[in-house]
């Protein structure tokens, strides 16, 4: 039986999870996979810090060089997060002929292709199943199960924190800020929640998925991004009347040779499979031209679920050590049709206004929509007779930039007291 | 660029689907996977039969030897179904150093280990993603994404025909036989529907999944199997009152060292993720000790979805040609704890009786349950005052054999006019 020596860079939540899995399931992995996994060294900032887990003290080190220069270590798992110094360390490991397994979505989104090139040049692997949707094996499935498909669409709930907040807001009728502070107390949201609630986390993840699915390096700067901070219980309530549930969706679509990638709060029909994804669960919905619709559902975060993906990648890397898997981004290399990035994506939109209750207001607003080619599918008017009344539109498919122009005109109209919210609708 | 020559055994629905995918997406596969797929020979019964697809006539053959003896063909995809002659052909291909890809669930369920041994001895691969859940990559995920997990439970909706029938019965209040004959007319059910409606198809599939998950060769003869023919609209209606939806579930559980595998109509809570799986969709719900709950959802049949799995296996087999993946069944080889097969599984049960409306009947029946240690969770009594009235119980967890004994006594009780149905309940 072979033994593989592994090193960890960082030892937070996910690293500890991966360590526990190797400790507790290592014997079974040896039996079923024919490989013994040994965590030989762990890079930490403070080797004397008290930890909740029993460890041989000697495996801890605060010197990266001890790992980079140890020829016995063939696989390094990175848990530091962020771009630097993780990137430097990973490049150094790859150049020292060590395969790297990582959960670092920001790094892979921004520098995945570059790192893969270094890995390939050094004959080692770069694996990042844990970077998207925790234990749900969406990376593997895109790379190794849907190879025969042209992927046309991805819609994912890939940030657990925002899904938890939106579920609570929807089911308990509570405000965003109220639920956020509860989530922070319970440890479901970070003390600084920006990366989650502003959609950066989901943006990095859809960047990785869409790059793989479309075989094109998607630049994070090309991704439309909007967080959930402006969603109110009123939006949710009116959405429900229209048969919609709200989710923060990460969406990537390819139409002909045009790609669009976006992250924003989205209304979806209540009977859509993604509407059943509640609390901190994740799900990724994919459309392939052969396979049709597929959905993968599971825990998108947590020490053991994400650790499961890390250990799976370690085992995969071991099996593929003589021929690692690399993701192809051929469209940027000019071999197939050139893909164009689409900034002016199309969607249906939910538009919530507060207007003066006067005759002719609806007609005026409809006129602005018409001016920019936005056609209206349905209207809700409420509480007639008060001074300020809600007016809700759902449009047919419209270009986002046309919507923006129409809304800009509408906002200037004196009978419109407030443009409350604009939320895309996907089916 | 390398080219791989492939041969098909049989050319029905799925074979045609795989052929179309290779024809239509072959260029993209060449770009992204670096391999050209060429279907070089197709074994058919009648080479002159008119077909709906354009083909070079010369690739058709009715002589298996032309395939077995062609050294240029390195991968053979089998679409014949059933045990013989498929098994003979596959063994012959493996011994001629050809990797085999198959959608044949009955064959893999009954002889998968034996065939894998032949494959391993000949240094070639045996892949069968398409045998379970069509395009949904559950085999790959069990083998290559959840390796770090001890799998405790599988619950699957893995027969599209029965799920279609049960969905229609539930949503439209129609009888089994009525929906079945409609399904047959629409081509959703076979002219002889036995394999689907009696649960054989699901049995073969759960046999494959549980063997992989528990690393134990599960004998199909050890699987409890019950079809959906006895389910009535009354059962569905009373189940709904209790908050349940009905599905034909294939279930495999491992508790300590004991394994149980069963296929039967099952009530599940309406908010269970599997309750959202409607019509002919498939879904597999898995519990791993690290990853937690995972669900995979998609089309379980059809030419292109199943073809997608076949072509994926072909590409995988190509990449792994120097080191094929084999599934380990180590528990039968004595290396880990010995697994025991459990015939007397435990479940909650829904029991529907028709009884005389007389004082004391409920108490008498409760007495029989008590005698065999079956405790009652809830009771519904309906239509009091008529001669024959329905009486529905839901039990707490009970052993199946104890239930059978209690029901046998209850059936003999003169105030019990009919034991209408007994349906397990899973949460």
Q: Which SSEs are present, and which pair or pack?
A:
The structure is a homodimer of 427-residue chains.
Chain A: E1 2-9, H1 13-33, E2 35-43, E3 60-61, H2 64-68, E4 73-78, H3 86-95, E5 99-102, H4 105-121, E6 126-127, H5 138-144, E7 151-157, H6 160-172, H7 176-186, H8 194-197, H9 200-214, E8 224-225, H10 233-241, E9 244-255, E10 258-269, E11 281-288, E12 292-299, H11 303-319, E13 340-341, E14 346-356, H12 361-371, E15 376-381, E16 388-395, E17 398-399, H13 400-412, E18 416-425
Parallel strand pairs in A: 1-2, 1-4, 2-3, 4-5, 5-6, 8-10, 10-13
Antiparallel strand pairs in A: 7-9, 7-11, 9-10, 11-12, 14-16, 14-17, 14-18, 15-16
Helix pairs in contact in A: 1-11, 3-4, 4-9, 6-7, 12-13
Active site (chains A, B): 205 (proton donor)
Pathway (chains A, B): Amino-acid biosynthesis; L-methionine biosynthesis via de novo pathway; L-homoserine from L-aspartate: step 3/3; Amino-acid biosynthesis; L-threonine biosynthesis; L-threonine from L-aspartate: step 3/5
Enzyme class (chains A, B): oxidoreductase
Textual characterization of the structure:
Chains A, B: It catalyses: L-homoserine + NADP(+) = L-aspartate 4-semialdehyde + NADPH + H(+). Chains A, B: Pfam families: ACT, Homoserine_dh, NAD_binding_3. Chains A, B: L-homoserine binds at residue 190. Chains A, B: Residues 350-427 form the ACT domain. 2 copies of one chain form a homodimer. Chain A is an alpha/beta fold and 427 residues long. Helix content of chain A is 36%, strand content 28%. In chain A, α3 (86-95) links the parallel β4 (73-78) and β5 (99-102). In chain A, α1 (13-33) packs across α11 and α4 (105-121) runs parallel beside α9 (200-214). The first copy, chain A, is elongated. β12 of chain A pairs antiparallel with β12 (292-299) of chain B, so a sheet runs across the interface.
């Amino acid at each position: 039986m072979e033994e593989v020596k592994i090193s960890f860079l960082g030892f937070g939540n996910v690293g500890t999870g991966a360590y526990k899995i190797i400790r507790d399931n290592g014997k079974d992995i040896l039996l079923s996979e024919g490989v013994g996994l040994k965590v030989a060294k762990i890079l930490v900032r403070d080797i004397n810090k008290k930890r909740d887990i029993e460890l041989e003290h000697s495996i801890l080190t605060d010197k990266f060089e001890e790992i980079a220069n140890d020829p016995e270590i063939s696989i390094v798992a990175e848990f530091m997060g962020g771009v630097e110094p993780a990137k430097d360390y990973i490049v150094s490991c790859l150049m020292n002929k060590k395969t790297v397994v990582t959960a670092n979505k920001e790094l892979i989104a921004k520098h995945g292709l570059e790192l893969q090139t270094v890995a390939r040049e050094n004959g080692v692997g770069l694996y990042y199943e844990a970077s998207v949707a925790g234990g749900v094996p969406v990376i593997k499935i895109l790379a190794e199960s849907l190879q025969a498909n042209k992927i046309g669409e991805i819609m994912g709930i890939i940030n657990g924190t925002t899904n938890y907040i939106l579920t609570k807001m929807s089911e308990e009728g509570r405000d965003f800020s109220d639920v956020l502070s509860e989530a922070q107390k319970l440890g479901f949201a970070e003390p600084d929640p920006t990366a989650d609630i502003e959609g950066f986390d989901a943006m990095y993840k859809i960047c990785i998925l869409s790059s793989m699915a479309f075989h094109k390096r998607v630049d994070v700067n090309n991704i439309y991004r909007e967080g959930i901070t402006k969603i109110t219980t009123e939006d949710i309530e009116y959405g429900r009347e229209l048969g919609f549930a709200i989710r923060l969706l990460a969406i990537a679509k390819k139409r002909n040779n045009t790609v669009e990638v976006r992250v924003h709060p989205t209304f979806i029909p209540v009977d859509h499979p993604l509407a059943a994804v509640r609390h901190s669960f994740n799900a990724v919905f994919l459309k392939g031209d052969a396979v049709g619709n597929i959905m993968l559902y599971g825990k998108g975060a947590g020490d053991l679920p994400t650790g499961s993906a890390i250990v799976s990648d370690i085992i995969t890397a071991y099996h593929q050590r003589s021929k690692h898997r690399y993701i192809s981004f051929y469209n940027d290399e000019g071999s197939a049709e050139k893909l164009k990035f689409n900034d002016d994506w199309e969607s249906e939109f939910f538009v919530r206004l507060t207007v003066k209750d006067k005759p002719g207001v609806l007609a005026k607003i409809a006129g602005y929509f018409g001016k920019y080619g936005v056609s209206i599918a349905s209207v809700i008017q409420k509480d007639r007779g008060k001074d300020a009344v809600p007016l809700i539109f759902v449009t047919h498919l419209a270009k986002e930039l046309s919507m923006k122009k129409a809304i800009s005109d509408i906002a200037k109209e004196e009978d419109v007291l407030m443009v409350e919210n604009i939320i895309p609708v996907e089916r």
